[in-house]
Amino acid sequence: MTKTIHIKLNKKFYFIAALALFLIGALVFSLVYFGVYNVSALTGHTTPVYKFLEHARVQAVDARIDDEVPELSTFNWQTSGIANYKRHCVACHGAPGVAPEPFSLGMMPPPSAIVRVARQRSPAELYWVIENGIKMSGMPAWKYRLSEDEQWELVALLKKLPTLSKSEYAQLAEKSTGTGTNNAIKDILSQTPEEQALAKSTSTKQSAGETLSGQVALQQYNCSSCHVIDGIASATYHVGPPLNNMVNRRFIAGTLPTTRENLIQWIMDPPHFKPQSLMPNLHVKRHHAELMVNYLYQIADDNESY
What we know:
This protein is mainly α and 306 residues long. It has helices spanning 2-33, 47-64, 77-88, 90-93, 102-105, 114-120, 123-132, 148-160, 166-175, 183-189, 193-203, 210-220, 260-268, 270-273, 286-299, and strands at 251-252, 256-257.
């Protein structure tokens, strides 16, 4: 008799719990579907939404970071690190005595106060966020734009920033002027034929995860803002031609015969082959262009050509 009562109570509890979850889900869906939740950047998220997103960020980063951290003192944060920070980071995050650019003050969520982040986050956390970025926060991923050493230089700098005075940072920033490299441009414009051959041979040794990397590369160079691409949820815009069967077309932009190498060269510098093209030079590195082309071959229809 007692066992029967427990079973009935358990069934009732699970039913009520399931019903409550369904109603909460329906409420959240309705708030979003009917436009009740305001996405305007003039005001912040509500407290529950902010806490939910913050918890999701912390847990996601903690679950993925690599605790193995190199010795930060070996990295050149005083010149190259400062130079890259000035070029890529200070506009949103500011620096000791340096205000962020006005546009960043209206971002929602606002960019983190860099001194607070440097104090609270471990080097492993900082590196993961720099490399991978954070969705829906304005924080980009730098994996495809900065080398591993350059990212660690930024981490080493961030850990030093809380100890720097306004004048100390200003002196370091002044000394770093003209240092650092724009690797994306140099890799393309100053490669010798031998370096290009080496890059090509190196790229053929990639792992089985290469297709996924090509998909990520297409997103990281924002190809999805203009092209329809299978496998990328945000790639639904017909500004440029769809890329799903790009490899089966006879010509690229009506100019180049469609071959694997021509596709790579076109992605790296479209205006070089067609100066009137509206597609700009995004300074795509050769290795990344190769990964993109490999992905385009992966998603193409085998028997369709035009």
